[in-house]
From TrEMBL, chain B:
InterPro entries according to UniProt: Cyt_c_oxase-like_su1_dom, Cyt_c_oxase-like_su1_sf, Cyt_C_Oxase_1, Cyt_c_oxidase_su1_bac
Pathway involvement of the protein, from the record: Energy metabolism; oxidative phosphorylation
Domain Cytochrome oxidase subunit I profile: 36-551
Catalysed reaction equations from the record: 4 Fe(II)-[cytochrome c] + O2 + 8 H(+)(in) = 4 Fe(III)-[cytochrome c] + 2 H2O + 4 H(+)(out)
Organism: Rhodobaculum claviforme
Recorded family membership: Belongs to the heme-copper respiratory oxidase family.
GO biological process: aerobic respiration; electron transport coupled proton transport; respiratory electron transport chain
Keyword field: Copper, Electron transport, Heme, Iron, Membrane, Metal-binding, Respiratory chain, Transmembrane, Transmembrane helix, Transport
Protein name in UniProt: cytochrome-c oxidase
Length: 215, 851
């Protein structure tokens, strides 16, 4: 519990609040346990090496442990990684598609207003909770990176390209995001916020937003 | 112990070279010292070309840069210790972390491993110097001057500030005005001349200068590791050099390679950078692993377990490391399935690493490990590197990478790999070879304390940093006012960072004390089995008074060998002809081939690198019209450089190497060291060209902003000129081939050399007409900029070949041709220039047809 308590925080990838971040966190804990076991194994073998000389079979070390053992471990890991990775991809239609447009040094977000137009906001992205949302990430100048650690992994904002990232928040709430790719003097302050609204409120939220931005 | 080593190190039984009669060791030593010593006084500092001097100088300079990079790291840690670090402003902070990374990579790690290879390889392989001593010196001066340019920029407050991987468009003229980015592009490229120089001569030295009887399959593992390193440097550095040249041309002349609005693509930079950047990690790791494979078995009083498996692992690493650069770019939006390939390759690269780790542990089981100081550092390596390797495996898993990429987790990982995989083994190597270098024994105690302080400091700094990253802290931020949850972690890292710095300072103090106050060391204090200990300590400039032969290689008993060699019982004893001589052997089975005469002390490398430096400074100052003047000086000095070689050739004389074994001096064609070096350099050059063609293909296929508006250049006149270019290069190639084939004919070849000159001249004329008359404005679109670069590449090579033809012509006039390798060299380069020229023409015609 103490361990997990240390894993919180508004930007913690270990405190997931969405399916993508959740699956990745599970992957992380599994890999951490595996890495711990492997480290202990190597250290144990090393410690056992400090003894009398003994006959060793070369093939057992280089081929057995070096080749086959590592191939077995890595293949399992690759399979797990690909499986999780495929599940995170934007497949099928997202309920909502929003835009994140990065510039030095801030974020402008675009939302559908439900009438074919867009509602633009600075610094805060609104999404419905409990539904997959696709974010189209673009840049006006240099390379930035869109990252909301509690919801999903990051994707770069690259001039000339539009990248798509799927995010989803399990429950309504506010989630911190930041620019992860170094982008010059204002990089450290290039933060933003994602507010996930209860799905039932979503049309009303858009309505209010539309009125606010129109003013 | 000796028995097992000897049994596995059996030399070539079919090669029996009788011993020379013993002589007085002191007389031999004096005779050789007269020929091989550096000049006296300050002159000796600028004219030295000796590998021992330069290897040590490389390592000492690298340590100075390590200290500077370390101070910058301390500034970073001081800034991050608290949330609102008010210690540095953001501009300065950005310069400091950029310089920290750049210095550690380009001015510490790479030169350090070059220095280690340059210092050790001739000694391990049983020869007297590197293949190209003047090139060693040239490399050193380019390294020093390039490094000083970067330091001067830091001192002046105009250091690079876009991160050590210099992503465009942040580093482009629009977003990075001022000379900061130019300093990086020009300065680092200047330094890379030394990397290419070292790679060429390390390759040639390992393949052609091993002691007779030391087959490729039996050479010390360190040589295998360095051969792999050198091969990777030859193929790894050219993409970075190309990328730097392209970006500098974009910044200076507005040719749009990376500008999306005009058909460029910032991702081209990332691809080219990481095609270098990932192999770079293994370029740094392999020499360190070579040191471990040398030290570990000797400290376990046994031989290495799984020599063949380790060699296979090295080759696999060299190969695989070029297939996984994209794992630095998992978040740029490449389709997941394509990423899976690179993820698999990134995981696969862990296999050869595991093979080595388990071979080393098996070696410890097989022997009786002694817990001496180098062993402590090797244990530190195991702990740290295994953890770093495992986090690397985690980062190769795509979903996890999407979370951890660009966070402190990656910072932690890369320091585990680089400090674990390079610094710890280098500290082990320093402890191991210091007696060899200084001839003095260590003062007990201090080194052990330093080890524990470094180990605790390192893990205290970087272990928690994994968690900092997972809690969301990105790289390269200077303040984090809204995230108190990162503060304790950062403070911990900062405190232990200073502990580590204290440990490294203690280590440096230990080195200084050993060098100045240590007691005399015995000849082979570690009872190591390798030839680097078969000499008096500290090593004389010529290493061996007579060179080891099959018998000494087979014995693997340096103590006995040292006496026999010092008394002149080995091959090619002394320096009776008053010149620097060594044996050249065949690449695979190390049979004696000929005797090479090496150039002596000269300031030419210093002057040449100073004129390259003048070019760099003129470019930095924006004096683009003046910069070519410096290149004229470079060409003139290169001419003098080769004249120096031509006058060394001693006219086909035979030299007594051993009783009943006389060898020719400098063979006429094909097999000289220079020829081998030329081939190695062209491998690098060809890689650069291939990277350029990759760039053309990448922008055509992937970049937004294509196809461009139709080009005015695609006219009948353009096609005619392209054909003229191809014909000119073809004629020059024919002339070069005839000249080489009929070399001994001497004067009658003048006509062919003139034809070669004319062919290259015609090619240059065609290019000049294309550029001035037909080609579109290169600033308009990336297509035109790429065509401009292709034209420049072909033109540069035609110019080089024209100079080589002129050089041959000059030699014919002097009556020198029959004994020198210049026609072979010209033919080699002309073949390359003609082939790349034809490919370039085909690419331009092909892409025009597609469009």
């Amino acid at each position: 519990m103490l361990l997990l308590a240390g894993c919180g925080g508004p930007l913690s990838s270990l405190d997931p609040a969405g399916p993508a971040a959740g699956a990745t966190a599970v992957l992380w804990w599994a890999m951490l346990i595996g890495a711990g076991v492997l480290t202990l194994m190597v250290l144990g073998l090393l410690a056992a090496g400090f003894g009398r000389p003994r006959p060793v079979r070369e093939g057992r070390w280089t081929v057995g442990l070096g080749l086959w053992f590592s191939i077995a471990v890595l293949s399992a890991l690759l399979a797990a990684g690909v499986w999780v990775g495929e599940r995170l991809l934007p497949r099928g239609d997202a309920v909502v598609t929003v835009e994140a447009h990065a510039r030095q040094w801030g974020w402008r977000f675009g939302h559908p207003d439900g009438r074919g137009g867009r509602i633009e906001t600075d610094g805060t992205l609104h999404i419905p909770a409990g539904q997959p949302v696709d974010v189209i990430v673009t840049s006006a100048d240099v390379i930035h990176s869109f990252w909301v650690p509690r919801l999903a992994g990051k994707i770069d904002a690259i001039p000339g390209r539009a990248n798509r990232l799927r995010i989803e928040a399990d429950t309504p709430g506010s989630f911190d995001g930041l620019c992860a790719e170094f982008c010059g003097l204002g990089h450290a302050g290039m933060r933003f916020r994602v507010i996930a609204h209860p799905p039932d409120d979503w049309p009303a939220v858009l309505e209010t937003l539309g009125e606010e931005t129109a003013e | 112990m000796t028995d097992t080593v000897a049994a596995e190190g059996v030399g070539d039984a079919t090669l029996d070279i009788p011993a020379n009669p013993p002589r007085r060791a002191l007389g031999l030593h004096r005779e050789l010292s007269r020929v091989w010593s550096n000049d006296r006084g300050w002159r000796g500092q600028v004219t030295a070309v000796n590998h021992t001097t330069l290897g040590l100088r490389f390592m000492a300079t690298a340590l100075v840069f390590f200290a500077i990079g370390g101070v910058l790291a301390m500034l970073i840690r001081a800034q991050l210790a608290t949330r609102q670090g008010a210690f540095l402003d953001t501009e300065l902070y950005n310069q400091i972390f950029t310089m920290h990374g750049s210095i550690m990579m380009f001015l510490f790690a790479i030169p350090m491993l070059e220095g280690l290879g340059i210092y050790l390889l001739p000694k391990l392989l049983g020869t007297r110097d590197m293949a190209f001593p003047r090139l060693t010196a040239l490399g050193y001066w380019c390294y020093l001057f390039g490094g000083l340019i970067l330091l001067a920029a830091l001192a002046a407050g105009v250091a690079p500030r876009d991160g050590w991987f210099m992503y465009t468009p942040l580093s482009s003229a629009e977003f990075s005005p001022g000379i900061n980015a130019d300093v990086w592009l020009l300065g680092v490229t200047f330094v890379e001349i030394s990397a290419l120089a070292a790679a060429v001569e390390i390759t040639v030295t390992i393949l052609r200068q091993r002691a007779p009887g030391m087959r490729l399959t039996q050479m010390p593992l360190f040589a295998w590791y360095m051969l792999g390193t050198a091969a990777m440097m030859l193929v790894g550095f050219p993409p970075l050099i190309l990328a730097s040249v392209l970006l500098e041309v974009e910044r200076a002349f507005d040719w749009p390679f990376f500008d999306v609005a005009r058909g460029g693509d910032p991702l081209l930079w990332q691809h080219l950078f990481w095609m270098f950047g990932h192999p770079e990690v293994y370029i740094i790791f392999l020499p360190a692993a070579g040191a471990i494979s040398t030290i570990l078995p000797a400290l376990c009083r046994t031989s290495i377990l799984g020599y063949g498996g380790i060699v296979a692992a090295i080759l696999a690493l060299v190969f695989l490391s070029f297939g996984l650069w994209v794992h630095h770019m998992f978040a740029i939006g490449i389709p997941h399935l394509a990423l899976t390939f690179f993820s698999a390759a990134s995981l696969a690269v862990a296999v050869p690493t595991a093979v080595q780790v388990f071979a080393w542990i098996g070696t410890m089981w097989k022997g009786r490990p002694e817990l001496a100081l180098p062993m402590l550092y090797i244990l530190g390596f195991f702990l740290t590197f295994v953890m770093g390797g495992l986090t690397g495996v985690m980062l190769a898993v795509i979903p996890f990478n999407w979370q951890a990429h660009d966070t402190a987790f990656v910072t932690a990982h890369l320091h585990y790999v680089l400090i674990g995989g390079f610094v710890f083994p280098m500290l082990a190597a320093a402890a191991w070879w210091m007696p060899q270098i200084t001839g003095r024994a260590r003062i007990r105690g201090l080194g052990e304390v330093a080890f524990w302080v470094i180990l605790i400091g390192f893990h205290g700094t970087f272990f928690v940093m994994h968690l900092t990253g997972l809690l969301g802290m990105p790289r390269r931020i200077d303040v984090y006012p809204d995230n108190p949850e990162w503060e304790v972690l950062n403070l911990t890292s900062s405190v232990f960072g200073f502990v580590m710095a204290i440990g490294l300072a203690l280590f440096a103090l230990d080195l200084v004390l050993q060098a100045t106050m240590g007691q005399r060391a015995g000849r082979n204090p570690w009872r190591a089995p390798t030839l680097d200990w078969a000499m008096s300590l500290p090593a004389p400039t010529f290493n061996f008074a007579s060179l080891p032969g099959p018998r000494q290689v087979a014995e693997a008993a340096p103590d006995r060998t040292a006496l026999a060699l010092a008394r002149g019982e080995g091959l090619l004893p002394g320096a009776p002809r008053g010149q620097r001589e060594l044996l050249v052997t065949t690449a695979a089975d190390a049979r004696p081939d000929h005797v090479a005469v090496l150039p002596g002390n000269t300031a030419l490398p210093l002057v040449l690198s100073a004129s390259i430096g003048a070019f760099v400074l003129l470019m930095l100052a924006g004096l683009y019209a003046l910069a070519p003047v410096a290149l004229v000086a470079v060409a003139a000095l290169a001419w003098r450089w080769h004249r120096g070689l031509a006058t060394l050739a001693a006219g086909g004389a035979m030299v007594a190497v051993a009783p009943r074994l006389a060898l020719p001096v400098q063979p006429g064609r094909g097999r000289s060291l220079t020829h081998s070096g030329g081939v190695a350099l062209l491998v690098a050059d060809g890689t650069l060209f291939a990277a350029l063609i990759f760039g053309v293909a990448f922008l055509h296929v992937v970049a937004p902003g294509w196809p461009p508006p139709p080009a005015a250049a695609e006219t009948a006149t353009g096609a005619v000129l392209l054909v003229a270019l191809a014909v000119g290069l073809g004629v020059a190639a024919l002339a070069a081939h005839v000249t080489e084939a009929r070399q001994p004919a001497g004067r009658s070849l003048a006509g062919w050399a003139v034809l070669g000159l004319a062919g290259n001249g015609a090619a240059l004329l065609a290019l000049a007409l294309l550029a001035g008359w037909v080609m579109d404005d290169p600033t308009a679109h990336a297509r035109d900029a790429l065509r401009g670069v292709l034209a420049g590449y072909v033109g540069l090579h035609a110019l080089i070949c024209a100079l080589m033809a002129a050089f041959v012509l000059d030699q014919i006039r002097r009556g020198e041709v029959p004994t020198s390798g210049a026609p072979s060299g010209w033919r080699l380069w002309q073949d390359f220039a003609t082939a790349t020229g034809l490919v370039a023409v085909a690419v331009v015609l092909g892409t025009a047809a597609v469009a």
